[in-house]
Amino acid sequence: LLQVTISLSKVELSVGESKFFTCTAIGEPENIDWYNPQGEKIVSSQRVIVQKEGVRSRLTIYNADIEDAGIYRCQATDAKGQTQEATVVLEIYQKLTFRDIVSPQEFRQGEDAEVICRVTSSPAPVVSWLYRNEEVTAIADNRFAVLANNNLQILKINKSDEGVYRCEGRVEARGEIDFRDIIVIVNVPPAITLLQKSFNATADRGEAINLFCRATGSPPPEINWYRNGKLIEENGKYMLRGSNTELIIRDIKNTDAGPYICNAKNKAGSDKKQTFLQVFVQPQIIQLKNETTFENGKATLICEAEGEPIPEITWKRAIDGVTFSEGDKSPDGRIEVKGQHGKSSLHIKDVKLSDSGRYDCEAASRIGGHQKSMYLDIEYAPTFVSNQTMYYSWEGNPINISCEVLANPSASVQWRRGKLVLPVKNTTHLKTYSTGRRLILEIAPTSDSDFGRYNCTATNRIGTRYQEYTLGQADVPSNPYGVRVLELSQTTAKVSFNKPDSHGGVPIHHYQVDVKEVASETWKIVRSHGVQTMVILSNLEPNTTYEIKVAAVNGKGQGEYSKIEIFQTLPVREPSPPSIHGQPGSGKSFKLSITKQDDGGAPILEYIVRYRSKDKEDQWLEKKVQGSRDHIILEHLQWTMGYEVQITAANRLGYSEPTLYEFSMPPKPNIIT
C-alpha cells in the first residue's frame, strides 16, 4: 500500500530565499510527481527543479517569489495505477524592500513636487515621512501630503523646503522597520538684476564702458552676454570679469551702440534681460563741396553730418555773417533751408553775384560741434566797372581810356573802332596794355580823325558784352562867376567865386586870381590851392581900392576871365584888446600868453601890463614888453595871493581897450631834503 509524506507541511519563506522539500513514498511507487498550486505538473526549470532519487523526490525553489506561494502536491503512482499524495503549504512574504531609490531628487521652485520612495513588503508596509525628525503629517503646513503610492507630495515647493527627508517603512506583524534618507534639492530659476538699464559713452575717445549683470538662482546660474544674436567671447574688443557678470567694451566706436543681452541659465530655467548702450558721437561733416552756378540761376548747397545724437546743422554766410537754420527763409524769399536727420540743403534761386563767396556749415550737438566751409562760385557774363564813357583830350596830348571788366570766368577783352581791332598795324599813336582787370587804350591824337567813338568788347562762355567810349576834343574852361569878397581887413581880403559851367572836357587844375590897385596897370597873380573856389589875398595896402578877376585853368590852358570886381581895404585904426590866458610859472612867477589879435592894420609896437594884488590896496605895478612877444612873465609874486591884471596893446595910431585878467598864486610847495 502506497504511503506518501513530505518533510514539511507548512513553510514560510521570504521573497528571494530558496527552499527545498523532500517527498518520500513507501511501497513500490513507479512515479513520483510534483504539482504546483495551479494543479500543473512541475517540470524542472532554471529556478524550480525536481530531483528523483529512488523513492524520494526533492522539489527545490530558488529565489522564491510571491507567485510561488500556494499548496504543492507530491503524488506517487504504483504499477496498478493507484495514487497517493501529500501536500505542503508554502507561504511567501516580502521583506521591506526599497527599490530604485534616487537621492538627491531635484525639483524646480514653485512646482508641485513628488518625492519618490518605492517600498514594498508583504503584507503591505506602513510608510511615513520625516523631515527634521518630525513627521511631515504633523507639520502645520498643508502643502505636505503622503500619497497613496507612499510618495511624498510637496505643493509649490520652495527653497526653504530643501533638505533631507526620511522615508520609513514598517511591517507591524513582523516588527520589521527600515528607512532611506532622500536629499531633496530645490532649484531656483535665475533672476537677473541689472544695475542700469542703459549706459552712455562717447565714441572715438578711446573710452571703455563696463556693463553689469547680476543673477540669483540655485544652482548658481551661468551668465553669458549676447549681441545681435551672437555669443560674446573675450577678444581685443571685449573683456569678461566676475564669472561674466561684468562686460567691458573697449575703445568705444559708434558701431558699438545698441542692445546687449545678458542671459542667465541653470537647470531650473533661464532668464535674460537687455541693457542698452547709447554711444554719443562727435558731429562730423561727411559731405560738403564747392558749387558753381550762374547769375540768375539756382544753386543747392548740401551739408551732411553724422553723429549721435544727430547734430543740428546751421549755415553761415561769411560775407555778412547771416545764419540760416532748418526752415529759415531770407526776407526776399530767395534763400531757404531744408533738412532732416543730419542732412541740410540751402537752396538759392534767382542767384545774385552778391550770393557768391564762402558759406560755413556747422554741425552741432550737446557733446560738440564741427565746422567746414565751401565756396559758391557764380559765373556771369562780363560787366563793365566804370560808368565814365566820355573822355577829352586835344591834339598831341596822350590820354588813357580804361576799360575795366568783371567776369567769371575771366573774359577776353578787345578794343575796337568800327570793325578794326586796335591797335592797327603800323600805327604809333594808338596802343593797348593790360593792368589787372583793365585793358587800357592809350591815344595820342594827331588829327581830328582820332576823336570819336571807340568800343570795348568782353567775351566769356556766359556771354559777350560791349561798352562804347567817346573821345571828344577838349577846350579851355568857361569863366568863373559870382566873384565876391567875403571878409576884409586892412591888409587881406577873402575872395569867393563859383566854378565855371564848363571845364572844357578835362579837369580844372587850379584857379587864377588877378589883383591890382585901381590906379596901377600891373596885375598880380594869385593861384588857388588846387580847385578850391576861395582865395585869400594878403599883403594889401590899407584903405586902398583894388580890382580882381578870376580865370580857371585846365590841361589845355587858361579859360576866360570873370567880370572884374572892385573892393577897398579897411583904414588903419587902434588895435583890438589882446586875448590872454595864463598859467603858473617856475617859482614865484606867472606866465601870461598873448594870442595873436587884430592889430588894426598897423603892427603892435608894445604891450603895457599893470598888475597888483587883490587882497591889499597896493599900488599898480607897470611893465612894458615889445609887441613882437607872445608872452609876459610876472615875477616876485606872493604865494596864495590873488592878483588882477590890465593889459593894453599899442600901435602907431593909439591904444586898445585894456583886457582884464585875474589869477591866484598856488601855495608854497613843500621842499623835501
Automatic annotation (TrEMBL):
It is found in: Cell membrane. The keyword DNA-binding does not apply. Pfam families: fn3, I-set, Ig_3. The keyword tRNA-binding does not apply. GO terms for biological process: cell adhesion. May play important roles in selective fasciculation and zone-to-zone projection of the primary olfactory axons. This is Neural cell adhesion molecule 2.
